[in-house]
Specification:
The two termini are about 30 Å apart. The protein is globular. It is an all-alpha fold and about 130 residues long.
Length: about 130
């Protein structure tokens, strides 16, 4: 069974401290909710545009790291197949439940991060009419 913390740590490997702080804040990887660009910018003393630039550069590195991690690739592939088996669309709660059975400790924040960093599948905001 894959370890979520190992996959996330591997994805963040090699990032500058500032890049790591931005990704952890944006995706809530240290617990809690993800922060807005403005909130991170205020905390770090930089503009939200600079936070966005740092985030994009960090996601590029994370994508490369994920592609090199066999456990991450296997997990993402299984999630993609699960979503495809559901007709290409699945509720986030269902995807999180499925992924948690494969990699204990995975939650919405980690799914959001893996989706964004790997570009293997998309996550959209859910509401009463769209999930």
């Amino acid at each position: 069974m894959a370890s979520t913390s190992k996959i996330i740590t591997s994805a963040l490997n090699g990032l500058a401290p500032r890049q790591k702080e931005v990704l952890e804040g944006r995706f809530g990887l240290k617990g809690g909710m993800g922060e807005t660009l403005a909130a991170i910018g205020d905390r770090m003393g930089i503009t939200r545009e600079r936070v966005r630039q740092i985030e994009n550069a960090a996601l590029s590195v994370a994508k490369t790291n994920i592609a090199k991690d066999d456990e991450a690739v296997a997990l993402i592939d299984k999630v993609k197949k699960y979503i495809a088996a559901k007709g290409g669309v699945a509720k986030k709660d269902d995807v999180v439940g499925f992924a948690d059975a494969l990699a204990k400790g995975i939650g919405e924040n980690q799914i959001d991060f893996l989706s964004e960093a790997s570009a293997a599948f998309n996550v959209y905001r859910e509401d009463d009419n769209y999930h």
